Amino acid sequence: MEDKFELLKQYLAQIEDLEGALRLMGWDQQTYMPPGAAQTRANQIATINRMAHELQTRDELGQLLEELNHNIELWDYDSDEASIIRFNWREYQKLVKIPAEKMEAFTATSTLAYEVWKEARAKNDFNLFSPHLEKLLDLQLEFTEFLQDGTENPYDSLVDFYEPGMTASMIHDVFSTIRPRLIDLIKTISGTDQVDDAFLFVNPPQDDLLELGRTMADKLGYSFEHGRLDLTTHPFTAGISYRDARITTRIVDENPISTLFSCIHEAGHAIHRQQGNPSLYRTLTSQYSMGIGESQSRIYEVVIGMSREFWLHFYPEIQRIIPSLTHVTLEPFYRAINKIEPGLIRVDADPVTYGLHIMLRFELENLMLNGKVKILDLPELWNAKMEEYLGLIPPDDAQGVLQDVHWTGLMGYFPSYLLGSIFAVQLWDKLVEEQPTCVSDMANGEFSPITEWLGERIHTHGGKFTLLEIAERAVGDSLSSEPFMHYLNEKFGEIYRL
Questions:
Q1: Residue 230: phi, psi to the nearest 5?
Q2: Does this model's pTM top 0.90?
Q3: Could you give all domains of the chain from N- to C-terminal order, each with its CATH number?
Q4: Edge-to-edge strands of the sheet including 244-249?
Q5: What is the pLDDT of residues 56-98, one digit of tens each?
Q6: Cα–Cα distance between 360 and 489 in angstroms, integer?
Q7: Which of 266, 294, 301, 469 is catalytic?
Q8: Do 139 and 105 touch, CB atoms closer than 8 A?
Q9: Is 54 a catalytic residue?
Q10: Using CA atoms, how far apart are residues 35 and 53, in angstroms rounded to an integer?
Q11: d(Cα 250, Cα 232) in Å, to the nearest integer?
Q12: DSSP codes, 397-427
């Protein structure tokens, strides 16, 4: 079987090289590509995506994977070899059901839709984007018809792309458990003396702000030898390979904290990528689930970046670029960056209200894919759910239904943002249990013990295990929302003196 496993790796290397090229082209599209090149880029991406899809669904590859999977017990379950076989056999069985021309059509439509979404958001015109969303939804419904395997909910097949082994029903159970508790916590906090954060809303020099973002990312463990920081409309990480993981942020007028936390969030993603196992490189198996990936960005951004200890080290740095903060001590600054206040924008949401933003999107996607809502009715339904969950009504679609870029691509991964937040707290609790000095280390600007621990428990495994499996291995327990709720109640109970 060893010779056949080596042949498998040769197949996979070609596919990953093509997918890396696609990620690089996507990064360029969202950073430096001239807007007039949209159609050209759509054609290029569609062609290369079709090539990758054809390679990944070849009969020869399927036969090879089936034979190797039949003999997978020759290797230990946790081994790289067994994991590479298991991961790619699972993905092959999904992708082979989708015709190459459908994948090509979806990619081309998605690429063009991204450019229209940017324009629609800038013009606050959902009707400009809605025909493209309609086309994307139709194509995804075709995908679900190809992929459905006895499941009643078509959403399950898309969720499985991002969280293998999970279903919409399982996600609903997790979310329905914490939704009322989040709403109650928000109501309790709203009845207390509100935190003053007015001093945060200033415009420091852009170059100084970005340099501080770079410093923070570097200190956390992000290697600029294998990455870079650029500006974009919507922050993201381009994980081209473990040798090339690029991050982006955005400048928000009079909101420098948003820019910095975007840097930290994306650095978490990129550190995950950069600390990947080289033996999984060019095997596709470095592609971990969305929930696992999001747990890393959230543990860096929220658990670490919003802690007192983090700012004990970095507060003098931000005071240097925002002179008005020299008159503000650390404690009111710490309370200000942790202010709980329902807002319209998901990426700027605090750790308590953030989950409700994700639930809203999960529910709308579920409704769309089950034919229970029309595209043109989305703005109205979005606003109604925002009012129900957060007591807010967006004044326009740019701050409502058009705010996220994600509906220019496949649906199904919004739930992973909250699942990752939940898992991040479980990981942190285990880390502190095993390395209790890591908290005080942060105050001294020492983050390497944290990043090394995460590298050993999470990063090196890539996509060898699902979110449910990695939870058992990393923390010795099943995925649970209880530590997450305990963390929120304890931290914000102390801040708001509940």
A1: -135, 170
A2: yes
A3: 2-147 (1.20.58), 168-495 (1.10.1370.30)
A4: 229-231, 244-249, 237-241
A5: 999 999 999 999 999 999 999 999 999 999 999 999 999 999 9
A6: 22
A7: 266
A8: yes
A9: no
A10: 27
A11: 6
A12: GGGTTTS-SGGGS-SS-HHHHHHHHHHHHHH
